[in-house]
TrEMBL record:
Residues 1-44, 445-465, 843-869, 885-965, 978-999 are annotated as: Disordered. Residues 1-11 have a biased composition (Low complexity). Residues 1063-1161 form the UBP-type domain. The gene is HDAC6. GO terms for molecular function: actin binding; alpha-tubulin binding; ATPase inhibitor activity; beta-catenin binding; beta-tubulin binding; dynein complex binding; histone deacetylase activity; histone deacetylase binding. PANTHER family: HISTONE DEACETYLASE 6, HISTONE DEACETYLASE HDAC1-RELATED. This is Protein deacetylase HDAC6. It comes from Rhinolophus ferrumequinum (Greater horseshoe bat). Its cofactor is Zn(2+). It is found in: Cell projection, Axon; Cell projection, Dendrite; Cytoplasm, Cytoskeleton, Cilium basal body; Cytoplasm, Cytoskeleton, Microtubule organizing center, Centrosome. Pfam families: Hist_deacetyl (PF00850), zf-UBP (PF02148). GO terms for cellular component: aggresome; axon cytoplasm; caveola; cell leading edge; centrosome; ciliary basal body; cytoplasmic ubiquitin ligase complex; cytosol.
Length: 1167
């Protein structure tokens, strides 16, 4: 599905967007003066003159006025106050609580001690604006928490140790201290103080270094070290007190912030993004709601974003990819006015809880990316982090970035691993229906065919990554931030025959005037300029060509005209050679200052432009290729082949730059330009997407070829997020040079595109995270004096450290632009791992977050009947909320089959209880799980995995079985909660199967049955493995027709696959009252009239068929967002959002009414 731009229509349920009409542009203007020789016939000089003068007149009278109107909303005025300063709340009182009964508890005062020591050592405390912490009032806490819960927490101040421990044991992974309540109130108040300061324009951004953490705390529940949910309270406070309408919450703690998610999962005013360790539910907090498939519901559907990591060892590249591919695009559409970060640092390498491999430099990158949002209004609130050194350095790195320091160079950026790519693909699939900006071309979802050595590299990538020793970060000490080169002598180059030529001297003088008016020039360090030396020019140009241009200094007017006409789109005057040398030399001066650390970044306001200049020819207004010479100069003075990224955003393809470096892997050249199928200047196929470089330089030339006009902010940012930045981070440049032509700007007479100054500012900001912030912008084209002045001013502001202006996208990216991006991605996926996308094969199944590629395990002896195995001994005493093991457990045979099964003996009253989370993966000591809301994963949803009694108390699926328990083994399931004494047994999931035991007998021992097709002695029809997994609205497990319920000997013992439903889910609030007319379980599907396998929606009570009939209930869910449905076949309740069955008091009334209608009597044991 692709978007068609402003007039696009789609069948997806995306939100409607306002698409204002864009001002008209002259799309017929497709080249600079004169086409490339041999490409097309030239117009007569007279006709060309008429066209040119008409364009310039139109620009001055109409387009220029439209541009001025469009720029009125851009805050670039001299009088505008630039916010500065980073707020910091750090209060020693927050260390006045600890665990009284366990000195080794990870969440302790030493965490803040380590942070303070690091900040003092690096001099960061003195650089921040210090704020005094304050206590959150009860009324403020009640924005998220219940008064009863707050009052209960308040009473803990007066409890003794025994009472505190008893209360703490009723929650999951918490401890209590007499000062816990006071410190939690102080922690919440600290974040609120920063909210007031940021929204009150006292500071630009801030960080609250607080404890206890907060993101697990729920409405009336302590959880995971957390009492009050600080960021949730802060979001509601910002909305209530400051009138903020849209808040983004980013949670990068390694644990999922379920408390925050549950608070906002129905609220479209808060976008919640969490990136966390999940491991198919095996990692704490063990919630299906933590998976990618949970996107919110009701009006909040699409506003919950979960990126679950399903393996340990995730690196910076994985986290950055999640931000680039998902968070930043969605956020641009969401347009937050405030960004809050639940900043846990337990994903850093060395953390004992997270077991991830992110680095402090990586968290600096994430912080930098967020600083481009919401006008820079960003607040970080400390959550987890339990390796003291990693925690301290992670906090320090983020604080450095908030203060405006450049991001350190990443040690080993690489590309996202296959597991991360799969998680991202699944999340994108879940979100695409709700966000227009995520629409992708189908081409980008094709799987890669890896050949030769690449296959070996792919295998290497999948192996667990061993992190290196945590690097010691260094932060540059700069006297000035941004260098500026300009020389008025460059105006000496002008057209002797045409005063209206677009490449006019006023281009540079107008830019400098605007920079001075806005006070930007005086904030920069003005650097001296010089002409380029012959040695510098000869690194990119031939001696013959340099000599030829030098000779023009002494030519007469007629000779100059003739010499200019011998090139493509060139005029020459006696000062041209000197001006061209000065432009190139000034750029080299700026490179020297950046590499010497004199400045961090820079702007070169130079002319004539350079990126069309070839090794031995002038072209397209260009004489010497300033960017190319500067790149070679940088490598020369650094003494090695410095990795340099050249980004060319001029609307015309930089043919000269491409040709100079097309065989050089040390220079990555990325160009975004109008191509128009080869008809836009410089014509031909040189700028096509399939031009990738030659020899060793293959893959290091990247062309994004626009095939039409009207490309604007949405298109360029989509290219940045999907293509430019992923490749750039993988390349990991040491210097970034930008061929900064502004002829793609709104109002340019040649470009016909719509980039805004705000858009250029955001493109610049995103590039500033690379190369330790060493980035230089060199002016190329741009022929509307207002456009280039405002655009360069916006970029300069950003280089100086001001946050980019708020950017509003009037429409999603044009479909033609998406096709161009997809085409380039398709070409370059073989060279860049970061562009490889894992296709989601099963969009419906709850376990489709794992791409099944392994073959089903085969028994050692296919002819043996031992493929049919039952195990006895795993006894679940769920009435006590605990799991016990029988004295003996039989081993499954043959030993090669890893899908070992265990027998669960359940009684009919024990079915609604949950098993105990693995205490080794939670955030501390695990208490009674029955008090933790939904803290246990459904073992049936991990691709058929069975709880391994050896891993914990029987609750966590064995990772060795998670992928391989399906295949040869086909499992039957039924919900024991529904098998009551007087109830007709649930229908078999196999059509036509007949129950062989009475409901009373079915409440006996339930065994997990492993059936191997080959062990049955006859071939069986194959079903795709994805369809064998637990489905939705399907009446139970989808199984092979050969699988029947087996009864052996005593019919009191039937063998089933036992499904433990969730005892609670956060979407039960969507259950609406039963209609007065009651329920009719014989009612047909409202769409197709089918009577088989129908379900009723528990929100609107409409009846539709399952996905195994015509999938109308699934379609109803996708259209309405209603999460819960009830089966008229077996009266089970399914939650689409949790992707699990649910058995809870909230659905018993409707189940009972359905049971009465179906059987004429109440459900027994309906408690």
């Amino acid at each position: 599905m692709t978007s068609t731009g402003q007039d696009s229509t789609t069948t997806r349920q995306r939100r409607s967007r306002h698409n204002p009409h864009s001002p008209p542009h002259d799309s017929s203007v497709t080249s600079k003066r004169g086409a490339k020789k041999g490409a097309v016939l030239r117009s007569s000089p007279k006709l060309a003159e008429v066209k040119k003068k008409g364009r310039m007149k139109k620009l001055s009278q109409e387009t220029g006025q439209d541009l001025i109107v469009g720029l009125q909303g851009l805050d670039l005025n001299l009088e505008a106050k630039t916010l500065s300063g980073t707020g910091l709340v750090f209060d020693e009182q927050l260390n006045e609580f600890h665990c009284l009964w366990d000195d080794s508890f990870p969440e302790g005062p030493e965490r803040l001690h380590a942070i303070k020591e690091q900040l003092i050592q690096e001099g960061l405390l003195d650089r921040c604006v210090s704020f005094q912490a304050r206590f959150a009032e009860k009324e403020e806490l009640m924005l998220v928490h219940s008064l009863e819960y707050i009052d209960l927490m308040e009473t803990t101040q007066y409890m003794n140790e025994g009472e505190l421990r008893i209360l703490a044991d009723t929650y999951d992974s918490v401890y209590l201290h007499p000062n816990s309540y006071t410190c939690a109130c102080l922690a919440s108040g600290s974040v609120l103080r920063l909210v007031d300061a940021v929204l009150g324009a006292e500071i630009r951004n801030g960080m609250a270094i607080i404890r206890p953490p907060g993101h697990h705390a729920q409405h009336s529940l302590m959880d995971g070290y957390c009492m009050f949910n600080h960021v949730a309270v802060a979001a509601r406070y910002a909305q209530q007190k400051h009138g903020i309408q849209r808040v983004l919450i980013v949670d990068w703690d390694v644990h999922h912030g379920q408390g925050t998610q549950f608070t906002f999962d129905q609220d479209p005013s808060v976008l919640y993004f969490s990136i966390h360790r999940y491991e198919q539910g095996r990692f704490w907090p063990h919630l299906k709601a933590s998976n990618w498939s949970t996107t919110g519901f009701g009006q909040g559907q699409g506003y919950t974003i979960n990126v679950p990591w399903n393996q340990v060892g995730m690196r910076d590249a994985d986290y950055i990819a999640a931000f680039l591919q998902i968070l930043l695009p969605v956020t641009l559409e969401f347009q937050p006015q405030l960004v809050l970060v639940a900043a846990g640092f337990d994903a850093l390498q060395g953390d004992p809880k997270g077991e991830m491999a992110a680095t402090p430099a990586g968290f600096a990158q994430l912080t930098h990316l967020l600083m481009g949002l919401a006008g820079g209004r960003l607040i970080l609130s400390l959550e987890g982090g339990y390796n003291l050194r990693s925690l301290a350095e992670g906090v320090s790195a983020s604080l450095h970035t908030l203060l405006g320091d450049p991001c350190p160079l990443l040690e080993s950026p690489g590309a996202p691993c296959p597991s991360a790519q799969l998680s991202l693909s699944c999340t994108l699939e879940a979100l695409e229906p709700f966000w227009e900006v995520l629409v992708r071309s189908d081409d980008t979802l094709e799987e890669d065919s890896v050949e030769g050595n690449n296959a070996e590299e792919e295998e290497e990538e999948e192996r667990p990554w061993q992190p290196p020793v945590l690097p010691v970060l260094t932060w540059p000490v700069l006297q000035a931030r941004t260098g500026l080169v300009y020389d008025q002598r460059m105006m000496g180059h002008y057209n002797l025959w045409d005063n209206h030529h677009p490449e006019m001297p006023q281009r540079v003088s107008q830019i400098m005037c605007r920079l001075e008016e806005l006070g930007l020039a005086e904030r920069c360090l003005i650097l001296p300029t010089r002409p380029a030396t012959d040695a510098e020019l000869l690194t990119c140009h031939s001696a013959e060509y340099v000599g030829r241009l030098r000779a023009t200094e002494k030519m007469k007017t007629r000779e100059l005209h003739r010499e200019g006409a011998s090139f493509d789109s060139i005029y020459i005057c006696p000062s041209t050679f000197a001006c061209a040398k000065l432009a190139t030399g000034a750029t080299c001066c700026l490179v020297e200052a950046v590499l010497a650390g004199e400045v961090l970044n820079g702007v070169a306001v130079v002319r004539p432009p350079g990126h069309h200049a070839e090794q031995d020819a002038a072209c397209g207004f260009c004489f010497f290729n300033s960017v190319a010479v500067a790149a070679r100069h940088a490598q020369a003075i650094s003494g090695h082949a410095l990795r340099i990224l050249i980004v060319d955003w001029d609307i015309h393809h930089g043919n000269g730059t491409q040709h100079i470096f097309e065989e050089d892997p040390s220079i990555l050249y990325v160009s975004l330009h109008r191509y128009d199928h080869g008809t836009f200047f410089p014509m031909g196929d040189e700028g096509a997407s399939n031009q990738v470089g030659w020899a060793a330089g293959m893959g290091f030339t990247v062309n994004v070829a626009w095939n039409g006009p009207r490309m604007g902010d949405a298109e360029y940012l989509a290219a940045w997020h999907r293509l430019v930045l992923p490749i750039a981070y993988e390349f990991n440049p040491e210097l970034v040079l930008v061929s900064a032509g502004f002829d793609a700007a709104r109002g340019d007479p040649l470009g016909g595109c719509q980039l805004s100054p705000e858009g250029y500012a955001h493109l610049t900001h995103l590039l500033m995270g690379l190369a330790s912030g060493r980035i230089i912008l060199i002016l190329e084209g741009g022929y509307n004096l207002t456009s280039i002045s405002e655009s360069m001013a916006a970029c300069t502001r950003t280089l100086l450290g001001d946050p980019p202006p708020v950017l509003t996208l009037p429409r999603p990216p044009l479909s033609g632009a998406l096709a161009s991006i997809a085409e380039t991605i398709q070409v370059h996926r073989r060279y860049w791992r970061s562009l490889r996308v894992m296709k989601v094969k099963d969009k419906e199944g709850p376990s489709s977050s794992k791409l099944i590629t392994k073959e089903a395990p085969q028994p050692a002896n296919p002819g043996s009947a031992e493929g049919l195995t039952t195990l006895e001994g795993n006894i679940l005493d769920t009435s006590m909320g605990k799991t016990t093991l029988a004295s003996s457990v039989q081993e499954s045979t043959p030993p090669q089959t890893k899908s070992e099964a265990a027998v669960a003996e359940l009684t009919q009253d024990q079915s609604s209880e949950a098993a105990v989370p693995d205490p080794t993966t939670s955030e501390g000591a695990v208490s009674d799980p029955t008090t933790s809301e939904g803290a246990v994963p459904d073992p049936t949803t991990s691709e058929g995995a069975v709880p391994d009694p050896t891993t914990s108390e029987g609750a966590v699926p064995d990772p060795t079985t998670s992928e391989e328990a399906v295949g040869g083994a086909e499992l039957i399931q039924t919900c024991p909660a529904l098998c009551t004494d007087n109830q007709t047994p649930p229908a078999s999931p196999v059509q036509g199967a007949t129950p062989q035991s009475s409901p009373t007998k079915l409440t006996g021992i339930l065994r997990i049955l492993e059936l191997d097709n080959k062990a049955q002695g006859s071939p069986q029809p194959q079903i795709p493995e994805e369809e064998r997994l637990l489905g939705e609205a399907a009446g139970g497990q989808d199984v092979d027709d050969s699988v029947l319920m087996q009864v052996f000997g005593d019919t009191d013992q039937a063998m089933f696959y036992a499904v433990t439903p969730l005892p609670w889910c956060p979407h039960l609030v969507a259950v609406c009252p039963i209609p007065e007319a009651g329920l009719d379980v014989t009612q047909p599907c409202q769409d197709c009239g089918e009577f088989q396998e129908n379900w009723v929606c528990l929100s609107c009570y409409e009846v539709y068929c399952s996905r195994y009939v015509n999938a109308h209930m699934l379609q109803h869910h996708e259209a309405s967002g209603h999460p819960l449905v009830l089966s008229y076949v077996d009266l089970s309740t399914w939650c689409y959002q949790c992707q699990a069955y649910v058995h809870h008091q909230a659905v018993l009334d409707v189940k009972n009414v359905a049971h009465q209608n179906k059987f004429g009597e109440d459900m027994p044991h309906s408690h």
